[in-house]
Amino acid sequence: MECGHITRQKKNPLTILADGLQGKGGIETREAVEADKRVAFFRGKDFYRHFRAHPEKLDELAPEKPDQNIEERIKAAGSALLRYHYIYRSDRLNSKPKPGRKLLKFPKKTVVHPVQEFVEDGFYTWIYEKPRKVLNAILSIGLVVFTISCCLLPVAPNIIKIIVFYASLTMFSLLIGLLILRLVLFGVSWLVLGVHFWLLPNVMSDELPVVEAFKPLYSLDKDAKKPDILSRLVALGGAGMVFWALYRTGPDGASVRQATQRAHDDLLEFFNLAAPKQLSANQTGTAGGESATPGGFATGESSVPNE
Q: Which of 217, 190, 185, 177 is nearest to 201 (CA)?
């Protein structure tokens, strides 16, 4: 009896190369908007730089030949990805920068380039998508479960509603605090140094994914027009007057604490999250029952005698 041998199909070298480029240790990939959809792309410069540093990664796809240098091998690999529709060449939607601005290293909007040729100074959009890992599948399922849970929140137990309420309130407070901190840092740097300093400059951008919105950590625009001393002094005087007026007319600490507690209780009652005892007490206090007044009359009865 002859036993057959099971042979495993060898993976395509182009697929191996594309998986390596999209994985950890590959080239930098960013997202852009192209024809009203979000796409992932990379720069040809990063492609060339990556394989100049790691020429051994081209051995299987483009073996080294005596009459071929590393630049030709890199171009052959990129052209193969282009020819077999792993990528296609893109270009900036706006090739000229706005007045007083520089061209971004990675454009936010791209279009298909009319000449599909692999060159070092081009941009290339991925058609091929690396197979997702198990963790990504678990996260996708978790997102679906989270969405369904949000829809079922109205019928959830009261403790779950309270947890969601406080978590949302905490996130909202952190966001407001971050925006205030960004504004304060910008104002101080503009008044003292005359420069434009922003903490997390992309955090409010609606064109970037969540992860990219927190990059870079800060930006310092040294090319922006520096304000003169008079403008900064006028702004400093105006800010000082505003703070002085707030200090003079602002409520004391006890009033702020009472107002905060009252707003907190009103929010809980508005969303029907207050404890049953507290709701009962509030309803009892506002039910219109009899309560004596200093004049001896009862608020729940008429003070006019019957005739």
A: 217
Residue with tokens 């507690």: 261
Residue with tokens 């101080």: 188
pLDDT digit string (tens) for 220-252?
A: 876 677 777 888 888 888 888 888 888 888 788
pLDDT at residue 186 tops 70: yes
Distance CA 279, CA 49 (A): 67
Rounded Cα gap, residues 29 and 90, in angstroms: 14
- Which residues share a beta bridge with 90? 112, 123
Rounded to two decimals, the pTM is 0.51
- pLDDT at site 46: 94
Helix axes 158-192, 229-249, angle to 10 degrees: 140
Per the CB < 8 A criterion, the answer to whether 300 and 289 are in contact is yes
Please report which helix (H) or strand (E) contains residue 30, including its range.
strand 30-34
